[in-house]
Amino acid sequence: MYPPxxxxxxxxxxxxxxxxxxxxxxxxxxxxxxxxxxxxxxAREAYPSEFVKALTDAGYLAVLxxxxxxxxxxxxxxxxxxxxxxxxxxxxxxxxxxxxxxxGTLLRYGxxxxxxxxxxxxxxxxxxxQAFGVTxxxxxxxxxxxxxxxxxxxxxxxxxxxxxxxxxxxYSDLMLLLARTTPIDRVAKKTDGLSAxxxxxxxxxxxxxxIRPIKTMVNHNTTEVFFNNLRIPADSLLGTxxxxxxxxxxxxxxxxxxxxxxxxxxxxxFIRTAAAYATQRTVFGRPIGQNQGVQFxxxxxxxxxxxxxxxxxxxxxxxxxxxxxxxxxxLAKLLTAEAAxxxxxxxxxTHGGFGYAREYDVxxxxxxxxxxxxAPISTNLILAYLGEHVLGMPRSY
Length: 397
Ligand SMILES: Cc1cc2nc3c(=O)[nH]c(=O)nc-3n(C[C@H](O)[C@H](O)[C@H](O)COP(=O)(O)OP(=O)(O)OC[C@H]3O[C@@H](n4cnc5c(N)ncnc54)[C@H](O)[C@@H]3O)c2cc1C
Description:
With about 400 residues, the chain is α+β, with helices and mostly antiparallel strands. It is built from 12 helices and 10 strands. A hairpin with a 2-residue loop joins β9 and β10 (about 285). The structure holds flavin-adenine dinucleotide.
């Protein structure tokens, strides 16, 4: 509630380039994947396998996995830095970022046996946990109404239903799936009766699960997934049956913070690219950036981005101190997504007609950064969270 009542102990937020070693190493990896690489992958509607392999081999997709399971055991802030740098380099982490936040559900709620089976193999890159099946076509943001069912049958669950926008499903070995195990009219609260499963997609393919790619504005390798009497072993269940919604919600703060880090990186790329072009492009006998009409939108976008970064760093610091951070994670997601979009607008406008030329990458980054006002949660739903849970106003939906 507002004002916060639990601000007792100090949480320190750093400024400047933290994790310089990680930043430097990620920049070096990204330098091998310039704009021409991303344009080519998009033109082929392909998956950036080489890029994902380079990141995996260097251990950056396993930064959050504890050392005891073969990862680096670093804080969320380190993962945030990795994603920021990828996006600031002109690349896109959408092909592999989900592993960072879906893994948390397995880590927190998986049994020891599940963790021992999967986490070391995810950390080594042998298994990919990139698919996250929550959204459904008929229920959208109203997650608790989702219709995919998993019904217990002996040593198995039988899954029926459909997911939409399940990104990377064709490039993942495992899927974190949310399905209803108790019908909504038989639970006290609509958030009860949903369960989280770790589905082995290699076994599920052609055994009741089919995947159909969706053509989209950006190259996000996203799909529809259909379940038709898919039998999954009962030990695919994570944690307790019926508690899955809470498990997924628990991971949402990490997801919001990590996606916000990508928006921050996008914003950095747009501002750097816009300022360079404005300085170098000469029209009417002088650099276009000498005109305040060109210079000020870039400067304003920079100011907005710097402010959003501080909120993001605060959210990371709270998360890493195991303090409540729902408000800060939502604010960071909202503010960075909007700041990146405004930076993108300034960058596109600064480039004039050349902003439309694919070889400049501006139009690609502009399309890519727009997504974050819609997914993984839309701006309105964040505002609804702030209105209700932070400001104490009536629930709006
Ligand atoms: C490229 C892409 C990749 C994605 N990847 C994944 C993935 O891997 N896994 C996954 O599970 N999902 C994924 N999603 C889905 C994404 O999380 C949803 O698109 C998003 O949560 C919004 O849901 P929706 O599209 O059903 O919109 P809807 O819920 O239909 O909402 C449509 C619009 O109405 C607004 N709205 C709805 N209800 C309210 C309300 N009560 N008050 C105010 N405004 C409201 C929303 O803000 C939105 O602008 C992806 C989406 C895209 C586009």
